[in-house]
Amino acid sequence: TQISPSISCQWEAVGPQTEAVPTNYTLFVKKGASKQGPTNSIQVDLELFPHFDSLDIWVVAQNDLGKEESEHLIKYAQHFVKTNPPSDVEVISEAAFPTSLVVNWSHPIIKVYVDLIYQIRFCQLRSHIWTYVPLEDTSRYIESFRLQNLQPYTDYVTQVRCKYSVKDYGYWSDWSKNATKRTPEDKPKSKPDLWKITTEGGINKRQIEFICKDPELSNGIIRRFNIKIRIKKDKSKNGSWESIQVNRSVPDFNRIQEEITRLKKIDLADEQSVYVIVTAINSVGASPWRLLIFDPKRNEPPVEKMEVRSHKGQLWLEWKPPNRTVSEYVVEWVSGGEIDWQRENGNTNGTVIKGDIKPFVCYNVSVYPIYSGRIGKPVHQQAYVEQGAPLQGPTVNLSGDPGRNSAVLVWEEIPLTARRGFITNYTIHWKNATGIFKTVPANTTSYTLTSLSHNTKYDIWINVSTVAGSYKGPNHSFTTLKYAPGEIEAIVVGASLGFLFIVLMTMLLCFYKKDVIKENFWPQIPNPGESTIGNWSPDYPLKAEAPRENCLSGISVLNVDMCDAKCVFDEDKASLPLKKDKYLSEEHSSGIGGSSCMSSPRQSVSDSDEGGDMADTTASTIQYSSVVAASSGYKGQNPSSLPQQSIFSRSESTQPLLDCEENQDTLVQEASRQCFQRQPCFTPNAGNESTTNGDGFNPLEMEQQEVLDFCPLEEDTEQTAPTECQSDEWISAPVSSYMPQLGGYRPQ
């Protein structure tokens, strides 16, 4: 209520100060009052404030080296007065005046002591930018003031201070406490901020959702939106307007923050366009309407060369305007499921995003040119206001099974929330005994490792990197195969095909060379019975005459043991000189391939002394002869005038007989042996009598003619044969004799 008699003075020390030489300060005030002390501030008690009187105030500094006096302050006593701030500051809102507030306060001291002037400042709530009321409007002794040109339905904070009214006198008091008040509502003064969200709704369809923010100058709480929609299907049909009213649920009318209201979802075909008109309504009235046209048929040009960069914690955009007049631009930024946008004037070519942009978050920034409400084609770009190291690394896996020397790695990109920046590259690490790494571009999500060792275990992991750092992903292990997939199958199939090829070629070769193979492995043994040797001899006709019956009836049988054979023939050698000569002569005169048709397959007893071992030394060459018929006459040394009727057939084969054939001939030979009982070619008699049968047939002459046809020397000497077996049927049939020779044909 009155001015205090105490004066507080402060000054600044000049020059160096030391504790060894302390300085004392003396404050002098007019009327001789003074007070000393070592500090640079002193409070002087004047007991009574000298109203409307001048005071002379100065300070003297003194120490052991000297003293110094400050300047003098000579002013009225009110000049040194600093009053308390105004009290009881109050702000009043009037519904009739939505753009003004009335501020009331109380004087801190009565005018008798100090004539005061005031200063007022205000700002919107949560803002630190103050607006000062000009001093010429408040430089008088007042207790209230009306603030004008305020925003309707806006909270304002107001402060007031005062000082001595004389210009350049006195000190301003401190600001009063905050007085906050909201201005009344008014009709919205700006258009609602209408926008859209486009999503694909299927083949040749899309879904449009219209969203809206409150008008920038909503001047109150927006309680509902009135919407008019018209869908234009084609040029001939414009469609009708559909009116929709969207009410807003406003649980708290004291909120100030902006909110996005979802208005309407519609489905459009590719050829359809939509027109939307929206107005915002509060408790006082409706806002101006805003038009938005979505027409995919019209390809409105986009902006050019858009660039987004980060600067001092903000995202700055620049672009080149299209070659058309643009009414405004819409700058949209999307992160995850959150979307926000702002509008810029059509004359600008750059801006800064004013929304709440967070660091380490990727934003998809788009710029849409608006042509009189019609949305143009956008341009997109991703951006970070600040980048950091990733929070996690990619998990690597194998695509399929590992191979023998290779493996295909695949991984997925880490989520956007974990990237915290643009991925610059991936570094693939794999090791068995030594570590190897490979750096791949950021757009790669697979890689094939090559030149791996077979049947080896590998550990792999991937590091993901940004400009601010990197992060290591989890490890994964795998073992390469010992054999490549299909390698064993290829070997088996190749070997099988090769074997099959060889088999087929062998079969084809056997098929085309079957005659040669048959000749080498299964030789064709000629049938002696079918031999045409008779055709070779010009001395004999093709058809042999039938032998006379009982031509062999006069043959005597002599049983000779193996041990006695040599003795018997030795005794008879002297008595048969002519016979041997005939034999040799007959052989030499055969003329059939250098051999006689009557040559024996064995040597006769008279030609060899080897006895029973003759069969063991038989040569590998085997010749076969077939006696078709015996000669009807005696063949002597001289050519006979009688025709020779015998036909001799000989096979030139040198192969051994088969068992079955050999057995068959053996049976025939055995039969012949049983009939002839190993008879020698002559029968010695005691009186050397010539024996003849009743027909005058001389057996000796027959013996000489046939020579040794029935005189092989066998080991079995025990058999005796009856003479009754010599039947006509047996003689008439040709007898085959297959016997080995030691030396082949006898020379002629």
From TrEMBL:
Q: Where is this region: Disordered?
A: 587-616
Where is it localised?
Answer: Membrane
From the UniProt record, list the coiled-coil ranges.
none
Q: How does it sit in the membrane?
A: Single-pass type I membrane protein
Q: Carries keyword Iron? A: no
Provide the Fibronectin type-III domain boundaries.
85-186, 301-389, 390-486
GO cellular-component term (any): plasma membrane
The GO terms this record gives for MF are: cytokine receptor activity
Concerning its family, UniProt says: Belongs to the type I cytokine receptor family. Type 2 subfamily.
- Protein name from the UniProt record: Fibronectin type-III domain-containing protein
What lineage, starting at the top, does this entry show? Eukaryota, Metazoa, Chordata, Craniata, Vertebrata
